[in-house]
Amino acid sequence: MKTKSRDLFFPANERIKYNYRIHQRRALKKDDKTITALLKHIREYELFTNFIDFRHFTDKIADKYITAMTEQGTSLSYINDNLRVLKEFFRWLERQRGYKGKIHYNHIDYLSLTNNQRRTAKATAYKKSYKYDQILTTIRAMPEFTAIQKRNKAMISLQALCGLRISELRTVKLKNLIQEEGYYFIHVNPKDMQVKFAKSRHADFIGLPKDIVDNVLTWRDYLIAHGFKEKDTLFPQIPHQFGQSSFLETNPQHRPIQSNTTILNTFRKAFEAAGYEYYRPHSFRHTIARYAEKQTPEFLNAVRQALGHSSIDTTIQSYGQLSESEQRRRIGQHAYISINQVSL
């Protein structure tokens, strides 16, 4: 794909993209982050065409665009997403004043991969995750002398207990940690936290050993003792600084951790120190789902709700997929039964 300066643009294209941005925000209620991602995909097309007027779009341009992306080694997954965005954009554009009759509606369908390419694009690699024994070993090996160490240990413990998304883990507040009828859960509330699709749910604690739960509760009590209120973040920033006595002080601030990178590094250091390969915090959701898949159907369905999945298929297909070794073990241990042995 041709590389052009970010300063290049075609005025008419910019004006209609502005209208499209307004349409996405006001009519389709999409957030700014999503709209920015859509516009980046559209700009990829403009870069390839050297910023020609959108009115000049044809089936031949669509074919050349797809060929250029595939020949330069762009992943089919990215190409599929890009073409989906362009299709939606040109179908909206074809209905706009000044563009009606300029863009052939049927030509928009040429912004497609082959069936095999689409299936390849949607194929997902096996997602590695820890076993609970590995997580417990790592948590128990973590030091807890300083405030930062206490916070980090509580953070990984909470993730093991309920598998939050990283934006939720970073923005969870003290008031979201609730005990009811003897059970703890995180009330994932979009009013308080950054939540995917703004969907509220109860992320219930898995029944892990008491010391893992205590790591979270002890940290909460530590914050309360330092003046934190219900509305304050559960995992605050803790800057390193030297006090008047020249001792290193680590006092929690009433501000949440600003960067996901801080959380990712916390998990990486803890697991590598324990001798394990690093997997992202999101992998804990796979750990929980794979554990639930081996339990009763009722337990699996409860975990589905706690993870925020609308369908049990999402929990099983995206999170509960068996490793090849587990697949082999289950098939190998299943005793063969002759059809003649089956009573009708």
Summarize the structure.
By secondary structure, this protein is mainly alpha-helical.
Annotate the secondary structure layout.
Elements: H1 11-27, H2 32-49, H3 59-71, H4 76-93, H5 115-122, H6 132-141, H7 147-162, H8 166-171, E1 177-180, E2 183-188, E3 201-204, H9 210-225, E4 241-242, E5 248-249, H10 260-273, H11 283-293, H12 297-307, H13 312-319, H14 324-333
Antiparallel strand pairs: 1-2, 2-3, 4-5
What would you note in describing this structure?
The protein is mainly alpha-helical and 344 residues long. It has 2 domains: 11-122, Orthogonal Bundle (DNA polymerase, domain 1); 132-324, Orthogonal Bundle (hpI Integrase, Chain A). The protein has 14 helices and 5 strands. α2 crosses α4, α7 packs across α9 and α11 packs across α13 (312-319). The longest helix is centred in the first third of the chain and has 18 residues, at 32-49.
